[in-house]
Amino acid sequence: MLLNSNQVKFFNNNGYLILDNFFTDKELDDFTNAFRHLIQFALKKASQIHLEIKLEDYVGKEFDEGMMKLEEIDHTFVSDIYDTIYQVPEFLRIVAKSETTQCINQLMNKTDDNPLYTYTSRCRIDPPDDERRTTKWHQEVFYTIPKNEFLQTWAPIILDTNSENGSIEFCPGSNKNGIAKQSFNDTKGVATPFVVNNEIIQNYKTKQVDMKLGQIMIFSSRLIHRSGQNKSKNIRYSLVGMYHAIDTEHFTPPSLNFQFKEISPEQYYREEFS
Q1: Separation of alpha carbons 215 and 118, rounded Å
Q2: Domain identity same for 149 and 53
Q3: Beta strands in the chain (DSSP E)
Q4: Do 133 and 230 fall into the same domain?
C-alpha cells in the first residue's frame, strides 16, 4: 500500500488527492522529448507545402510558437499530433505506472495487483483563449462505460498549471452526493454535453489548484469538476485518464474503432495489386 490512512480519509471526504513527485524527471523528460519530435516532424511536413515556414525559427519554441503556427495554417497537423501522442511508448509508460494502479486500487478497496482498464487516457492540448474544448461543470459518469466503478487522474505535463492557464477546478466533497442533476445539450461539437445544473454548483465552495510538473491528482468519478479557461499566452498541456475496475457486473469494454484518415489498408492493397 502506497497511501497512508490520512490520505485515504482525505480522499473519501473530499473526492480527490494530490500526490507530489509522482512522476520522475526522466519520465517527464522522455515524454517531452517525444512530443517535441512529433511537433518537429509536423513542422517539416507543413514546410513542404507552406514555404514560408523556416524550421530553424521554431527550435526551442515548438510547444507554443510551433504548435500555434501549425494550428494557424491547418488544424489537421495539430489533430494528428493529438491522435499520435497518446499512443507513443513514452506516454504509455506514464499512464501505466504501477504506482498509479496501486494507489487507485487502494482507494477503491481492491488488492494491489487487481488489473484495471485504462480508458481515454489522453494528453489534452488547450491553446490560449480557445473555448471550443473548455469543459463545463460535469461528472465523468456519462462520458465513459456506463454504471461502472472507476477513478480519474489529472496532471500537468510539459508545463505547470495554474489559474491563468486553466488548471483543473472542482467541487470538494461533491463525490459524497452521488450523481448530480444534469442537463443534456446535443449540439454537435460541444465538449461537455452533460452538464451539472447551476443550482447544484451553488451548494459547493469551488476550488482551483495550481499544480507542478510531477504532481498527479486522483479523483472520484462523482467529483464535479471542469478544466479552467486558458487565459495565458501559452498552450496548456495536461494528462487526463480513467481507470476502470473490471471485476464488476457493469464492466464491458467498448469496441475500439480506429478509422484511417487517408487510405485504408484495403485501398492500399488494391493500389499494389490492381
Answers
A1: 19
A2: no
A3: 16-19, 116-126, 150-156, 168-170, 182-184, 194-196, 207-208, 216-220, 225-227, 236-245
A4: yes
Expressed as residue numbers, the domain containing 218 is 1-23+97-251
Identify any residues that bridge with 217 across adjacent strands, giving them in sequence order: 18, 154
Q: How far is Cα 241 from Cα 243, in angstroms, rounded to an integer?
A: 7
**Shared-domain flag, residues 194 and 124:** yes
Q: Is there a contact between 142 and 224 (Cβ–Cβ < 8 Å)?
A: no
> Is the Cβ–Cβ distance between 76 and 16 less than 8 Å?
no
Supply 242's cell numbers: 480513467
pLDDT confidence of residue 1: 66
Which of 66, 96, 126 lies at the terminal end of a domain, its last residue? 96
Indicate if 91 and 112 belong to the same structural domain. Answer: no
pLDDT value, residue 274: 86
pLDDT at 133 (0 to 100):
66
The DSSP letter of residue 138 is B
Which residues, at least 6 apart from 241, have a Cβ–Cβ distance to it below 8 Å?
95, 118, 119, 120, 121, 122, 152, 153
Joined together, the cell numbers standing for residue 158 give 510539459
In the predicted model, residues of the chain with pLDDT beneath 70 are: 1, 132-133
Residue 131: which CATH number?
Answer: 2.60.120.620
How far from 242 is each of 150, 151, 221, CA to CA, in Å? 7, 6, 9
Q: What is the pLDDT of residues 101-152, one digit of tens each?
A: 999 999 999 999 999 999 889 999 999 987 766 789 999 999 999 999 999 9
Whether 8 and 68 share a structural domain? no
List, for residues 246-273, the tens digit of each pLDDT value: 999 999 999 988 889 999 999 999 999 9
Last residue within a domain, chosen from 73, 96, 119: 96
